[in-house]
Amino acid sequence: MPLFGSIFSPKKTPPRKSASLSNLHSLDRSTRELELGLDYGTPTMNLAGQSLKFENGQWVADSVISGGVDRRETQRLRKRNQQLEEENNLLRLKVDILLDMLSETTAESHLKDKELDELKVTNRRRK
Fold first, then answer.
1. I want to staple 62 with a disulfide (CB 3.0 to 4.6 A). Which of 38, 51, 67, 105 is the partner?
2. Phosphoserine is carried by which residues?
3. Do 71 and 127 lie in a common domain?
4. What is the domain range of residue 101?
5. For every residue of 22-73, which 3-state class applies, written as one string?
6. Nearest to 55 by CA among 83, 30, 76, 29
7. Residue-level pLDDT at 59
8. Is 73 within a domain?
9. 3-class DSSP assignment, residue 4
10. 127 in the same domain as 105
């Protein structure tokens, strides 16, 4: 007989109970939230006295910054400003291209007018 006997030998574990008998695991997330009331709202936290809220995949300051303007509003205005600057740059480029095209056609027109005048002069000399 061993010194410690069968005290240290692992015993067989009892078989596990079957999986959950409820059908909640087969429901989609929104239905489960309605059934179980799992609507937690948006996550918020405080860091160094500043309140942050998780919106659209980013942590956004929930508090109002100096001057009474909301941080989300300033972000929206910056984004709109950048869009307008890009549009303005595109329009300037289009104007430059149109001016180049106009100067090219004007130069061609002047050359053709000059050539036509020369042909008229040579035609008069022949007569």
1. 51
2. 9, 20
3. yes
4. 64-127
5. CCHHHCCHHHHHHHHCCCCCCCEEEECCEEEEEECCEEEECCECHHHCEHHH
6. 76
7. 82
8. yes
9. coil
10. yes
User: At residue 64, does pLDDT exceed 60?
Assistant: no
Same domain membership, residue 74 and residue 43: no
Note whether 59 and 52 are within 8 A (CB): yes
| Rounded Cα distance, 43 and 104, in Å | 61
Secondary structure letter of residue 116 according to DSSP: H
User: Alpha-carbon distance 85 to 92, whole Å?
Assistant: 10
In the chain, % of residues over pLDDT 90: 36
Q: Which residue has the tokens 């500043």?
A: 50
Q: Which residue has the tokens 């095209």?
A: 101
pLDDT band at 93 (very low <50, low <70, confident <90, very high): very high
Residue 59's nearest CA partner among 47, 48, 77 is 47
Residues 41 and 98 in one domain: no
Assess if residue 48 is contained within a domain.
Answer: yes
> What is the total count of domains within the chain?
2
- Check: CB of residue 24 under 8 Å from CB of residue 32: yes
In a domain, 82, yes or no: yes
Three-class DSSP category at 20:
coil
